[in-house]
Amino acid sequence: MTFRRLLAPFLVLIVAACGFGAPALAFETKAPTAILVDVGTGRVLFEKNADDPIPPASLAKLMTATVVFDMIRKGEASKDDTFEVSEHAWKEGGANSGGSTMFLPVHKRVSLGDLIKGLIIQSGNDAAIVIAEGLSGSEQGFAEKMNAEAKAIGLSHSHFVNPHGLPAEGQQVTMRDLALLAEYLIKTFPEEYPLFSEESFRFNGITQRNRNPLLALGADGLKTGHTAAAGYGLVASATKDGRRIVLAMSGMQSSEERAREAKRLMDFGLQDFEEVTLVKAGEPLGTARVAGGSQASVQLTAREDLALLVPRGSLKDVSRHIVDNGPIPAPVAMGQRAGWALFSRGDETMREVPLYAAEAVDRAGVVARVAETIVGQFSSERSE
């Protein structure tokens, strides 16, 4: 079972806004490939070429971090472990490489805890290589772990060749896969996720700032990436009013365009949608008449929540109407189907939610039933 299936809430029914006739919201971005997901519901709020394979650049480090966190959790590694900076790591990912670096000194032993910070905050290619060599003996060996983890999570269109994301034949990701990976990181490693929101890290006398432009604008993670082949990309997450969104986009022409388009997409997800709970499980919604019972009516409730993620304000003209099956002959069992809650716009029924008896109702005594029958007949005759 993939992680995407595990995300579906057990007691919350999510209905697309269009199911209630809500107008679709128009949004466009200059990003060649992008996706925006509401984490709580799993609903895709926007996508554009989200399954197109692209080079990952430093966004591959999200999978590197995932493998490391998983190994730490399983006791296969510790943040106190130290690894030596090899000549290969120093040359390929160090200060003279021209890429993102943690400025690791060659042959110095560095703790895994510091390497993780250098990987996430400084996006150090040297940190990624040292981690891979320290935990798996080589970049190739670590890439095997990355691909095994990707398969387990459900990243069906991504393949990793190295831990840092620098160009390599056969290495690719999609924005849909990266959004799923971000959700997995957030949900599976909540104790580690705050690292993605740290704004700077000082190592070897050098302080470097986190490159995520959305951290100062309301996001709390995750990662940026850039190579000539991939363009400027970003995976980010943010919350508002108890909702969390994840966005992934790539292919921008500059860091400024990346910041601008990511901010627009983040604002769209947080400001233009709202989650509205129309029905709560167990909440009394109405009553149904009971015939021949120890009481004249029974409370009706729903078994599941009905929550809608919709364009903000789109449900203002939707009304609720209760239809019961009454009079229901006694005895009535608790949980017995007893009616519906109908949600309508004008004369059009948009949604029906089954309702059930909230309690058991026994049959009344003989005298009470006879009296009820007489009263019913008398009322019927008078109405004629």
TrEMBL record:
Entry-linked InterPro entries: Beta-lactam/transpept-like, Peniciliin-bd_prot_C_sf, Peptidase_S11, Peptidase_S11_C, Peptidase_S11_C_sf, Peptidase_S11_N
Enzyme Commission code(s) on record: 3.4.16.4
Catalytic function, reaction form: Preferential cleavage: (Ac)2-L-Lys-D-Ala-|-D-Ala. Also transpeptidation of peptidyl-alanyl moieties that are N-acyl substituents of D-alanine
Biological or metabolic pathway of the protein: Cell wall biogenesis; peptidoglycan biosynthesis
Signal peptide segment: 1-26
Keyword field: Carboxypeptidase, Cell shape, Cell wall biogenesis/degradation, Hydrolase, Peptidoglycan synthesis, Protease, Signal
Family annotation (SUPFAM superfamilies): beta-lactamase/transpeptidase-like, Penicillin-binding protein associated domain
Peptidase S11 D-Ala-D-Ala carboxypeptidase A C-terminal domain sequence ranges: 273-363
Gene Ontology molecular function terms on file: carboxypeptidase activity
Record family assignment: Belongs to the peptidase S11 family.
Function: Removes C-terminal D-alanyl residues from sugar-peptide cell wall precursors.
Protein's recorded name: serine-type D-Ala-D-Ala carboxypeptidase
Lineage: Bacteria, Pseudomonadati, Pseudomonadota, Alphaproteobacteria, Hyphomicrobiales
